Each structure stands twice: as structure tokens, then as C-alpha cells.
Please model this.
Amino acid sequence: MSAQVWSVDAALVCALVGLVTGAFVPALIARIPEPVDGTEETGGESTAEVVSAKERYADIAARPGLRTRTALATGLVAGLLGARVGWGPELGFLLYLAPVGVALALVDWRTRLLPTKVIAPSYGVVAVLALLAAWMAGDWDSAIRAGWGWLVAGGTFFTLWFVYPRGMGYGDVRLSGVLGIALGWLGWAELLSGVYAGFLLGGVGGLLLSALRLVDRRAYPFGPFMLVGALLGVLVGPHVAAWYA
Model:
């Protein structure tokens, strides 16, 4: 996607949609099954150790004022996405990812787990909506690039996990593929900028948060940084590419 003038009307409508869908984020979190075995791997510790001490999803969902905060956060994200892409068909999968991304960021921040029960269905939803967007736009190159995005982002994270599994949870690998499909559909600039921004934010942000003793430097959640990085890739990726060019 090339750089363009941001759309104010799309931003306002998408922000409203985000406010509505974001209000249901606590309900989504409350419906996530609690992990009971070793299928959801984490960075640095076994799932059993993390699960035994983690906050329950239902307790996270019941936190006072959470519905208002998730609605505002999703509204902000959706508004920014709408402003950036305008009324393009890609809004379908982007508006889906807005509340799901807020839910995953919150859950990972509080539990250091990225639930497979949320990420796995998102592959199907995002892939179908990406194909639908390509059909509506008559742009099958974007669909092909979405597949490459899945391979590039997912392959990069899988390689890092395979080389040093204690340094990254497999939930991050799963999430990278979903984000890669979305970013790849939008363009190479969005994909590469989004992945790089996630690593940059995760490295710098993790060091800062550990220095402030807000997280354990050996096992802090990486998912929120990946999601913010992906958002930045959408927002500024084309401008970064134009600057380099």
C-alpha cells in the first residue's frame, strides 16, 4: 500500500466500530479455556510452572473498569487503522484484529501466555477476509503477498524459537503468522516495518521495563510489543519505505 492522505471519515466510523467491539473484549477473555497441559509453551519456563501461578482469565475479565478501557483502546486502534487505509476492503481483517489484538495484548501482559484458542481461529478468519478483500479489490497480488507475509514473519519467529526456545514462547510464533498475513496483504513496507518494529520495541521496551522492575527481564511478554509494532507497520511503513527510497 502506497503512502496516502489519511481518511478522517473512515477514522471516525472505524473508531465507533472499535468502541463497540472493544466493549466485548472482557467477554472474549472470560471465555478462553484455562490451559491444563503443556500445549501452550512460554519463554523461559514450562507451561505448568506458569499456569500454576498465573491469573485466571475470568479474573482478568472481571477487573473493574476493564470494559471501558478495552473499548477505548480498541476504538483508538480501529480509528488509526481506518484513517490509514481509508475505505479499502482490507478494513475487514484489520477491524477483526483490533479487538482480538487488544485481548491478546492484555492476556499476554498479565499471564505471559498467548492462548491458542484465540490465535488458531484467527488464522482462518484473517485468511478468509484477506482473500475476500483481494477479490473485492481485484488484486490477487495482495493475496499472494499475504501468503509470503505468513512465511516471512512466521518463519522468522519459528527460526528464533527453534534456535533458542527458552528465549521465546511458541505463542509468539503463532501470533507472528497471523500478523504476517495482514501486514503482507498491505505491502512489503508494512510487513518488514511491522516485524522490525516489534523486535525493536520488544528489545528496548523490555530493557526499560526490566530496569524499572515492572517485568522479569528473563521472561517478559513479547506479544504486546509485536502487536504495537504491527500497528506501527501499518501506520508508518509506507513512509519509512519512501524515506529509504
